[in-house]
Write a structure and sequence with these properties.
The structure is a homodimer of 142-residue chains. Chain A is built from six helices and five strands. In chain A, 23% of the residues are buried. Chain A is an alpha+beta fold and 142 residues long. The longest helix of chain A has 13 residues. Chain A has a three-stranded mixed sheet. The structure holds a DNA duplex (25 and 25 nucleotides).
Amino acid sequence: MENKIFKEFLEKKGLKFTKERAAVLKGVFSTHNHFDPDDLLINLRRKGIRVSKASIYRTLPLLLECGLVEQVEKVDKHAHYEHTFGHGHHDHLICIKCGKIIALYSEKLERLQVNLCKKEKFRCITHTLEIKGYCSKCNAKA
Amino acid sequence: MENKIFKEFLEKKGLKFTKERAAVLKGVFSTHNHFDPDDLLINLRRKGIRVSKASIYRTLPLLLECGLVEQVEKVDKHAHYEHTFGHGHHDHLICIKCGKIIALYSEKLERLQVNLCKKEKFRCITHTLEIKGYCSKCNAKA
DNA sequence: TTACATGCAAACGGTTTGCACCCGG
DNA sequence: CCGGGTGCAAACCGTTTGCATGTAA
């Protein structure tokens, strides 16, 4: 199933469905947990499958691109900060074309989150919401 | 103002309010934009203030800790992934004590986000919501 | 047969750290 | 005066890349 999706995706791009790529795919789908590239390597090794770290790092972006895998908890490779004094908590709309960041605050959204936490008996300390897409300007151009 | 907050915070921890820390604080508050440690260094250099990169890296966690600065766009230093097939989009509750990750999906939340985007004429492609706090188990222990 | 892929090891780049010297309290 | 702080440069470590070799189509 995932196999078929990935294979067709690769075909369309003129890329090859190698045994290493199949292995990475299999590793990815052998767990419902989050993982990082290293987890994946260890996971595969445990199954006796040998794939180089490089191949894992080269395959993951393909899986992202065809939508079989999603990235969690990281947008960029380095830390970003902002000072909070005077403007308090807010969320962000991030334009994936021009990089523009639009701050956003919604009381309704905040309340809803508090309620969702309650349902899970989770004590919320802080949260981060980032919505990625195209800002009005970039959207108009396209 | 920020100065006072930071100074008192340091005092309470038995730490010193040095000119380097003051400089970093000043740099942080001299912009309303996001920045990374390197931006900050350049920003300070431009003003003729010399602080080492190491001091910036050592000061930022303190500013986070006392709430004068927030981290944006990064939780962890390495990428995390999850496969999407079969369980589609969802958000996450992340326990900052035990690391447990609870998946969460709320139709209401999704709808609200779409509406917020509309208001900003933003074309939403994807989003990430992470709520950090204490899971029920860790909460019970504390 | 021939692009494209792989493995390896070296390079990269952001972040952390050891150490000798410095300085705020 | 002294314990924490600083700058510097080296170490770290996750990720990327160049290159010789392998292989899917």
